[in-house]
Fold these 2 entries.
Entry 1:
Amino acid sequence: MDTTEEQKLKLREAILENREKYEGNNMTFSKSQKYYDMLAEKYEEQLLNANVRTHEITAETVADLYPSDVRDKVKILDVGAGTGMVGSALRGLRFKHIDALEPNPNMLGKAKLQNRYETYFIESVNPEESSSIKNGTYDAITMCATLAEAGHIPPEAIKGIVRMVKKGGYMVIVNRVLKDETLNDIDAVMDSLEADKKMIKVTRKVWPGYNEVTGDFGITWVYRVL
Ligand SMILES: C[S@@+](CC[C@H](N)C(=O)[O-])C[C@H]1O[C@@H](n2cnc3c(N)ncnc32)[C@H](O)[C@@H]1O
């Protein structure tokens, strides 16, 4: 086995071990936040070593919705922004007005250091609490790698996130494909929002190569808010 293969194998073991510990079924939000406290320093390096392009895919998906001459007027909220990789990729595609919502100060601190967003909301989204963000504030919302089997953004919270988007705006969610039960829960929330005429599906697509090292598939949901 050459060094690169050996490194990839080690990285795969580390990612899967962390996932079991911090995203598995028994995970809670506060425990997973402790993990992000620790991970913040190495987060981007770990993803780049695994050739994860989710931040770019998220930004490219948003860019497909807006011609380049209007992008500087589009107001975007990146939910679960982490260290700001999505913000940086969006800026690279000529979006200018991007805010971040992220509960973890260490992760968000990295984004702040690099000025990746305009406004930083240190908060979480969950079905029990309403966010400080007013209804219909944003043209688009991005959520990249923010859904997990547990300890992250609960599927029901998507209902509260949709209300932050202006009518005619978009929700763009890019994630790894989760266990069937969780994926069914997310799709059920999407279906119920569509049935209630809150939004309409533009795309739901599953694609290979989300993470070269773990072999995960990715999934992209794009919805237009009504
Ligand atoms: C895997 S990281 C993804 C970060 C970033 N979106 C990216 O693509 O690099 C998941 C992020 O979601 C955040 N998060 C977890 N639960 C959340 C919640 N309930 N509300 C908002 N963000 C949450 C975590 O703090 C973490 O920064």
Entry 2:
Amino acid sequence: MAQGRIVGGVIAPHPPHLVYADNPPQNEPRSEGGWEMLRWGYERLRRDLAAIEHDVLIVLSPHWQTYVGWHVLAGPHFSGKSVDPIFPHLFRYTYDLEVDTALAEAIESEARGAGLVTERMTNPDFRVDYGTIVSCHLVDPAWSRPIVSISSCRATAYYTVEVMQEQARILGEATRRAVEASGKRAVLLASNSLSHRHFTDEGELPEDMSREHITNHGQHLWDVKIVEMLRAGRTQEVVDLMPEFTRQAIAETDAGSLTWMLSALGCPDAPGELYAYGTVIGTGNAVMGWLREEGWPA
Ligand SMILES: [Fe+2]
């Protein structure tokens, strides 16, 4: 069996607004569009990803919140309707997805072996979280490949960002070992926004773009700083800065997704490709990718 490899890492933010604005058949509510810059960015990402052979998407979602350890979706098939609890008027999505159970089990075992608390989710009636669904949909709307979904253990909330960071780094390295042993070619999705303070009210038309802007100037400065560092290939520095960024910008990196993904890639010196940056209800969102046919790390 050929050695598996991680051939891509993507920052794949999951505002349900982006699916709502796309009007796919899986989502009930209809829209007049909106958030085009981010959606066109995802479109360019999909074009680039199509040129990279890969077998599976592995996503770490902030909205599958497990307070005791990291859980891995490990049943073969999940279907149902996902309704966003904050935006039920925007996101009522019928999903039907396949899981790469062998890889899911291997990631869970590697992570457990590395000292993390882990669990496999095999309940066929489990409702998959909307962060997993939105990021996977925007990267592959046809759901043409199986996925592996990993929860966020919320160590930031229970302990500190630093504890979360350390666990996410160990999980990233465990994920890489599991992928390499699997023979599969995997793309990793860090499902998160950057700065994450959002509006508390909404206009009559949610997709009215005349209302859309970053919540505050401080968030803009932080987002641009992080994006610039990532575009310059300073990924290790971003991981080092993550606790401060997460606290100051109330960033969704508190979930560990970005640290996990960059650690799995070996914190490359290579620049990430920025496909888009845009705000959604005041939060900062970057769609970025590190894609390489020969895999990461080199
Ligand atoms: Fe979120």
